[in-house]
Specification:
Layout (H helix, E strand, L loop, with lengths): L13 E6 L14 H15 L4 E6 L7 H6 L4 H24 L5 E5 L8 E2 L2 H9 L3 E5 L9 H11 L4 E6 L4 E2 L11 E2 L1 E2 L1 H6 L7 H9 L4 E5 L5 H6 L6 E3 L9
Parallel strand pairs: 1-2, 1-6, 2-5, 3-4, 3-5, 6-10, 9-11
Antiparallel strand pairs: 7-8, 10-11
Helix pairs in contact: 1-3, 5-7
């Protein structure tokens, strides 16, 4: 009798996975934990082996947070550029982790630094995906005042991803932060307007609006639960999904 997983086809063809920099810290309070990078790389490879085309956007909050620095008196544009450089460091770490597993990977940076990464060119990114390479987008949008959430939404639309998957530390979207509020209730399916109107902590408003205008679904799930990426792409009920009200293909 064949393995049941062999009869299940992924429900997405091309995905963009957004990982916050904090996910790479592990139990540390700062920086990159190589053990966590390897675990993330293994999970991404497992999904890549299913035949999916995968792009990644990684934040830089484990190294430098532009908003926090700006609030402490640093010029916002300067702080944001420093945050973009932090995302490049994380992207190179993920590239190293993936290539140690034999997965061909390309880092494309919105800020040109040819010795480290390729410059971002949309058609080149799509071509890499079509050739089976994992693409890691670094340096955000290349502009200050935009978060990596907005960069993830923008890049997902540019490569025509089927879904934007946001990896977090909680198992979906709640009415409030479940780590602080024991009465918080999980919402499995919701609309973009509800996210905006109730100011739910999913992504920043610019990113949500961009996804709303272009009908790009957002799947929010817990990255700390091993195997969740694979479960999500195989159609299991994982996390929470933000989608158009009239889209009946997604639960």
């Amino acid at each position: 009798m064949p393995d049941s997983n062999q009869t299940i086809s992924p429900r997405f063809r091309r995905i963009l996975l957004k990982i916050s920099g904090e996910r790479l810290m592990g139990v540390e309070s700062y920086g990159i934990d190589p053990t966590v990078v390897r675990r993330v790389a293994l999970e991404v490879k497992e999904v890549h082996d299913l035949g999916l085309e995968i792009a990644l956007v990684v934040g830089g909050g484990n190294i430098f947070r532009g908003l926090k620095a700006s609030a402490s008196g640093m010029d916002r544009a300067a702080a944001d550029y420093m945050g973009m450089l932090a995302t490049v460091m994380n992207a190179v770490a993920l590239q190293d982790g993936l290539e140690k597993l034999g997965v061909f990977t390309r880092v494309l940076s919105a800020i040109e630094m040819r010795e480290i990464a390729e410059p971002f060119i949309r058609r080149r990114a799509v071509r890499h995906l079509e050739k089976g390479r994992i693409v890691i987008f670094a340096a955000g949008t290349g502009n200050p005042y935009f978060t990596t959430d907005s960069a993830a939404a923008l890049r997902a639309l540019e490569i025509k991803a089927d879904v934007l998957m946001k990896a977090t530390g909680v198992d979906g979207i709640y009415t409030s932060d479940p780590r602080k509020d024991p009465t918080a209730v999980k919402i499995e399916v919701l609309s973009y307007m509800r996210v905006l109107q109730e100011e739910l902590a999913v992504m920043d408003a610019s990113a949500i609006s961009l996804c709303k205008d272009n009908r790009l679904p957002i799947l929010v799930f817990n990255m700390n639960e091993p195997g969740n990426i694979k479960r999500a792409v195989l159609g299991e009920r994982v996390g929470s999904i933000v989608k158009p009200d009239d889209d009946t293909n997604l639960r």
